[in-house]
């Protein structure tokens, strides 16, 4: 017997970004989810009821007093596997934080006993207002996953933080939340920093020393942490992947830029996961013009200097008491022996050891690893989606948080 499709409630509150929820709805329905759309009265000024019904294949639920015998203000939330509100306005979040229920959507939020995801969208000043920030903090303490808004073009000519994340990114976050179910919010209240990608060390204006890291594993770590309720800062080194929903992304290029961004980001972090492939060396000199090839003349050797060891520095100088530091090690031979030696040398709490080369790890959607702990424990993570490896890493981090409580 086939399992019934997951039941998703898509709440839409009254902001101009409501039109983007149509694309989010399409992604849910095309992936087999059963979606009930619950728009507020204000949302219907932006997108009409007929559009929601046509895209979902189901009547939109708009009124508390419709089909009263079915008790919609209770049943919709009770029967859902996930409630996601996109966009979530400042007004909607204020009502949710204070338990107000003056329409069908806010009633649904009160009765839901499933994971709840809010994707805020508003002007920067509204997002940064202390009242909104306190409401967000309250909701997160209760286990609601409030995604960080994106930075970009807002209504009119304004630009800043407050833009609704792209529907594809919201959908990916929701997919991870549904995959975890009731275990979703175990990183609520935590700030985690993740690095991803590979640094590039310029030789001249067109050439650089780099590596093959795609950033997929680091991005998977960021997405899964956000889906588990964390506030996430992602330090992205030259990755070409779209910014994950609900994640603050800082783009860097070189190892020195990554170090500077990391030292700033970890100041209030509970956990730091350095998944980026950082160049050990950089050219001693940078040529301001393209280095030319000359017939009959061999090129001059490229002198290299060491880059700072960011992982060892973060481990040795923890920014706050109890901060956990997780490193990654890419090895081609003597994988476990080299991994254990690196764990001792770096001083981190956990080390994820990957065997690379021969098409393994780099650029793939799957990964396997051995997770080494400073206390001598080790755990093998079987080959599977990079999100699964990411969840295994966060499971280990959460377990250590629990021991320190």
Automatic annotation (TrEMBL):
The pathway noted for it is: Cofactor biosynthesis; coenzyme A biosynthesis; CoA from (R)-pantothenate: step 3/5; Cofactor biosynthesis; coenzyme A biosynthesis; CoA from (R)-pantothenate: step 2/5
Q: How is the cofactor bound?
A: Binds 1 FMN per subunit.
Which intervals hold domain Flavoprotein?
Answer: 7-176
Which Gene3D superfamilies has this protein been placed in? Answer: CoaB-like (3.40.50.10300), Flavin prenyltransferase-like (3.40.50.1950)
Q: Which GO terms describe its biological process?
A: coenzyme A biosynthetic process; pantothenate catabolic process
Q: What is its EC number?
A: 4.1.1.36, 6.3.2.5
Cellular component, GO annotation: phosphopantothenoylcysteine decarboxylase complex
Q: Which reaction equations make up its catalytic activity? A: N-[(R)-4-phosphopantothenoyl]-L-cysteine + H(+) = (R)-4'-phosphopantetheine + CO2; (R)-4'-phosphopantothenate + L-cysteine + CTP = N-[(R)-4-phosphopantothenoyl]-L-cysteine + CMP + diphosphate + H(+)
Outline the segment boundaries, as ranges, of region: Phosphopantothenoylcysteine decarboxylase: 1-191
Q: Per the record's keyword annotation, is Metal-binding included, yes or no?
A: yes
Q: Where does CTP bind?
A: 280, 290, 308-311, 328, 342, 346
Name any cofactors this protein relies on.
Mg(2+); FMN
**Record Pfam families:** DFP (PF04127), Flavoprotein (PF02441)
Which GO-annotated molecular functions does the record name?
A: FMN binding; metal ion binding; phosphopantothenate--cysteine ligase activity; phosphopantothenoylcysteine decarboxylase activity
Q: What does this protein do?
A: Catalyzes two steps in the biosynthesis of coenzyme A. In the first step cysteine is conjugated to 4'-phosphopantothenate to form 4-phosphopantothenoylcysteine, in the latter compound is decarboxylated to form 4'-phosphopantotheine.
State the family named in the UniProt similarity comment for this chain. Answer: In the N-terminal section; belongs to the HFCD (homo-oligomeric flavin containing Cys decarboxylase) superfamily. In the C-terminal section; belongs to the PPC synthetase family.
Q: Which NCBIfam families match?
A: coaBC_dfp
Listed name of the protein: Coenzyme A biosynthesis bifunctional protein CoaBC
The species this protein was found in: Kitasatospora gansuensis
**Species lineage:** Bacteria, Bacillati, Actinomycetota, Actinomycetes, Kitasatosporales
| Gene name tied to this protein | coaBC
């Amino acid at each position: 017997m086939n399992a019934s499709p997951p039941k998703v409630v898509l709440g839409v509150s009254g902001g101009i970004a409501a039109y983007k929820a149509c694309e989010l709805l399409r992604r849910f329905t095309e992936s087999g989810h059963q979606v009930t759309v619950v728009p507020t009265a204000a949302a219907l000024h932006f997108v009409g009821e007929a559009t929601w019904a046509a895209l979902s294949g189901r009547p939109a639920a708009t009124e508390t007093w419709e089909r009263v015998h079915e008790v919609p203000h209770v049943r919709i939330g009770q029967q859902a596997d996930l409630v996601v509100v996109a966009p979530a306005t400042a007004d909607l979040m204020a009502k949710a934080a204070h338990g107000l229920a003056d329409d069908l959507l806010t009633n649904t939020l009160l009765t839901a006993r499933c994971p709840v995801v809010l994707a805020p969208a508003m002007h920067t000043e509204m997002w940064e207002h202390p009242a909104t920030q306190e409401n967000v903090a309250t909701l997160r303490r209760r286990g609601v996953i409030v995604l960080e808004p994106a930075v970009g073009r807002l209504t009119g000519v304004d630009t800043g933080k407050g833009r609704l994340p792209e529907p594809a990114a919201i959908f990916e976050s929701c997919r991870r939340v549904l995959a975890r179910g009731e275990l979703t919010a175990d990183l609520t209240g935590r700030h985690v920093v993740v690095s991803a990608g590979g640094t590039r060390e310029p030789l001249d204006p067109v050439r650089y020393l780099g590596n093959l890291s795609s950033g997929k594993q680091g991005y998977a770590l960021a997405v899964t942490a956000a889906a588990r309720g964390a506030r996430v800062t992602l330090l992205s080194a030259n990755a070409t992947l779209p910014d994950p929903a609900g994640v603050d992304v800082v783009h860097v290029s070189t190892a020195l830029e990554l170090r500077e961004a990391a030292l700033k980001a970890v100041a209030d972090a509970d956990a730091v996961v350095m998944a980026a492939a950082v160049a050990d060396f950089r050219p001693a000199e940078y040529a301001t013009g393209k280095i030319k090839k000359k017939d009959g003349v061999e090129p001059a050797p490229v002198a290299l200097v060491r880059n700072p060891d960011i992982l060892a520095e973060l481990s040795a100088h923890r920014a706050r008491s109890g901060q956990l530091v997780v490193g990654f090690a890419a090895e081609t031979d003597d994988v476990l022996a080299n991994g254990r030696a690196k764990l001792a040398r770096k001083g981190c709490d956990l080390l994820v050891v990957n065997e690379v080369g021969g098409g393994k790890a780099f650029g793939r959607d799957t990964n396997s690893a051995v997770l080494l702990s400073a206390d001598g424990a080790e755990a093998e993570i079987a080959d599977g989606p990079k999100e699964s490896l990411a969840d295994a890493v966060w499971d280990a981090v959460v377990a250590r948080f629990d021991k320190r409580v």
